[in-house]
Specification:
Blueprint lengths: L6 H6 L5 E5 L6 H12 L4 E6 L7 H7 L5 E5 L12 E4 L8 H8 L3 E3 L1 H8 L3 E6 L4 H14 L3 E6 L11 H4 L4 E6 L2 H10 L5 E4 L7 H4 L2 H13 L6 E5 L4 H6 L5 E6 L8 E5 L4 E5 L5 E4 L8 H17 L4 H10 L8 E6 L2 E5 L6 H8 L6 E5 L9 H10 E6 L5 H11 L4 E4 L3 H10 L6 E4 L12 H14 L1
Length: 476
């Protein structure tokens, strides 16, 4: 994109042109794209394409009904639908490798996403956070700590905030602003076309995930590496020193490296976790600093890692003072849907961990409990392995409530093979699942929704799954 190009020039170039919004979706991105272009370019002919049905998209369709320059085509995405298109705004769930995408590119039809446009036009600093798990907690924490430190910050990306909300001249041209963005592997693919990486890139971990899209772990790692691929020498890459997969990500990357370690830090700059009392050793400010924490939330290993990574960004790289950080750290309560305690009924505690969409996430969270739990699991697969999942569940769960999905039968079989005595109860929906779990619980028990699987089929997405769990628990 030419350097003179900015948002105003970009929008003007598509007046009286044909724009395709490819994928309305259920997670705000496509909806925000429609609203953005319908308002900004009233002369444009805007067409929304989505494979889903009217019934599935009812809520989103109601919100765009008011725009006279928008028409909707559902249930198909064929080459003929793109004839004459001048601009296509692609949903992240649609792979760049898709044959139809390649065909459109060969015809010189411009394809963009909210990520590509934001990275091309934004003049401020970008902090990008990716990883298989822990992205949202780390992103939220960094954003809150920087705000406490007086920085002009906003959050967006995979944290359920479309970047179309920030495509405004007042934001894009302000070099003082800092964008803290959660970036999924799908969104990272967009950076290849934006030719820009975040000035500060953070990788929480890389576990087996999304192999239904990537096929192999190697290709998944290649997608994660895109967060740092376009970084310059003046930029920063923050990694987990214990994660062997991150060694692949940092290879041949130009930016300066910082490391978090839950053990003794090998690298010269970074943060290590000290056990008793809970504190973090910060190396790289010219002197060693011991950052003490009184918040029990960070005593959990995955939350401690999020804090360690956040301290690297806020203290070591951006220089926020230790005193300003301390109050916010000790008042941080976490984010919804991630081992969130919902309520306690008759001595039975309910936890919502719906964002555990891979086996490793459930495995890690079960380790937090010294007692055997009642686990609500099951759902759809991403071509992942469930052997270790079954081993841990067969030891750590007293009963397993199984939601329907294409991997549920496999999970049941693997668990029962390892522990024939364990009770696995199949249910039809979340309401039945919550009621069965509560019926089988006694005072002192813990019930956890931590599926280790995706939500598709029975739910719109993992947040819909979590919302249904919360509702059923509230109605008990």
């Amino acid at each position: 994109m030419p350097k003179k190009d900015n948002l105003k020039i970009f929008l003007k170039s598509f007046e009286n042109k044909k724009i395709i919004i490819w994928g309305l979706g259920l997670n705000f991105g496509g909806l925000e794209a429609v609203k953005f272009f319908a308002k900004k370019i009233k002369s444009a002919e805007i067409t929304v394409l989505d494979l889903k049905s009217k019934a599935e998209l009812t809520k989103s369709l109601k919100e765009i009904k008011c725009y006279k320059n928008v028409k909707v085509v559902l249930g198909r995405q064929e080459e003929k639908d793109f004839l004459g298109a001048d601009l296509v705004i692609k949903n992240p769930a649609i792979p760049w490798e898709l044959a139809l995408v390649k065909k459109l590119q060969s015809k010189n039809i411009r394809i963009e996403t909210d990520i590509t446009l934001f990275f091309k036009f934004f003049k401020g600093k970008i902090i990008g956070i990716t990883g298989s798990k822990g992205k949202t907690t780390t992103t939220t924490l960094i954003g809150q700590l920087l705000k406490k430190g007086g920085k002009d910050v906003f959050l967006g990306g995979n944290i359920r905030v479309s970047l179309f909300a920030y495509l405004k001249e007042s934001i894009l041209e302000n070099r003082r602003k800092i964008a803290v963005l959660e970036l999924s592997s799908f969104q990272l693919e967009d950076l290849f076309y934006a030719k820009r990486g975040p000035e500060i890139a953070v990788v929480t971990n890389v576990l087996r995930d999304h192999l239904n899209r990537y096929g192999t772990m190697k290709k998944y790692l290649e997608a994660k590496k895109l967060i740092a691929l376009f970084q310059q020498k003046s930029d920063f890459l923050v990694l987990n020193e214990q994660d062997k997969n991150q060694k692949i990500i940092q290879k041949n990357i130009l930016s300066s490296k910082f490391y978090f370690s839950s053990k003794k830090l090998v690298g010269s700059r970074g943060v290590s976790l000290e056990s008793e009392p809970l504190s973090f050793l910060i190396k790289g400010t010219g002197k060693k600093e011991l950052f003490k924490v009184n918040n029990p939330f960070f005593s959990q290993p995955h939350n401690a890692q999020s804090l360690g990574l956040a301290l690297i960004v806020c203290r070591l790289i951006l220089g926020v003072s230790e005193k300003l950080l301390e109050k916010e750290v000790n008042s941080f309560e976490g984010v919804p849907y991630r081992m969130e305690k919902i309520r306690e009924i008759s001595g039975v505690a309910f936890y919502n961990d719906t964002t555990a969409t891979i086996p490793d996430a459930t495995i890690g969270n079960l380790a937090l409990f010294s007692i055997k739990v009642i686990l609500i699991s099951g759902g759809s697969d991403k071509n992942l392995k469930f052997e270790r999942f079954a081993q841990v569940v067969s030891r750590k769960a007293k009963k397993v409530i199984l939601l329907p999905g294409n991997i549920t039968a496999v999970i049941r079989q693997k668990i029962k093979k390892l522990n024939p005595k364990i009770s696995c109860i199949d249910v039809k929906n979340m309401r039945e699942g919550v009621h069965k779990a509560f019926e089988n619980a006694k005072k002192g028990d813990v019930i956890i929704l931590s599926p280790g699987c995706t939500s598709f089929g029975l739910f719109k997405n993992e947040f819909d799954r979590g919302d249904q769990f919360n509702k059923e628990v509230a109605d008990l």
